[in-house]
Amino acid sequence: MESVVEITGLNKFYGRNHVLKNINLRVEKGDVLVICGPSGAGKSTLLRCINRLENFETGTVRVLGKDVKIHTNLIFIRRNTGMVFQHFNLFPHLTVLDNIIIAPIHVKKVAKHEAVEKAKILLQRVGLSEKLMSYPHQLSGGEKQRVAIARALAMDPEIMMFDEPTSALDPEMIKEVLNVMVDLANGGMTMIVVTHEMGFAKQVSNKIAFMDKGEIIEFATKESFFSNPTSQRAREFLSKIL
């Protein structure tokens, strides 16, 4: 299988705090990888190192064959990796439509009418066609997150990355966001998802990376991880959340 993300010997420090410890990870095209583990394990930091929103001290991260440490590669990498954050990060002064078309027009130089047509298709896909001209303050949390997903998809990414996309949402809004993510996974999108939603992990992931204290303790298929985790720490974690 074609490797789209390859991490070797990654170490990250905040001062003296060693937050990522010798991380080795490979993501192949079509994988849906869920990164899980307790709070403070380093999950979000690892995700942010993949597109170098965070710098790291040692090791290599290659995305779509390109080394993220080489500055000239970053534009290519960020064009081809969609990122959905915990807190939406929509522009509050722009409509939903304008939030979605701004990057394709200014970064990919897509003609405005083409960007608008694609935005309409994407909004229909995430169930928000009627919100085209709304502003972020007029949307629920779940709607904002679905707009954020549509915005990321507007760039035609090879990989979609999600950093705890449901953790800021009210419980009744979580399902509408997860449904969109399930649809993406079923469509063959390569995805890396940091989440505590183990139901989602069971339903659509094919690989699980379990982290604790900055290390990947376990890397396994979802079937193996949920039925027979090899580490005591993973067994403890699953016993508390399942």
UniProtKB/TrEMBL annotation:
Keyword list, A-Z: ATP-binding, Nucleotide-binding, Transport
Xref: SMART domains: AAA (SM00382)
GO MF terms held by the record: ABC-type amino acid transporter activity; ATP binding; ATP hydrolysis activity
InterPro entries: AAA+_ATPase (IPR003593), ABC_ATPase_HisP-typ (IPR030679), ABC_transporter-like_ATP-bd (IPR003439), ABC_transporter-like_CS (IPR017871), MetN_ABC_transporter-like (IPR050086), P-loop_NTPase (IPR027417)
Entry keyword Nucleotide-binding: yes
Pfam families in UniProt: ABC_tran
Domain ABC transporter, first and last residues per copy: 5-238
Similarity field: Belongs to the ABC transporter superfamily.
UniProt protein name: ABC transporter related
Originating organism: Pseudothermotoga lettingae (strain ATCC BAA-301 / DSM 14385 / NBRC 107922 / TMO) (Thermotoga lettingae)
Source taxonomy: Bacteria, Thermotogati, Thermotogota, Thermotogae, Thermotogales
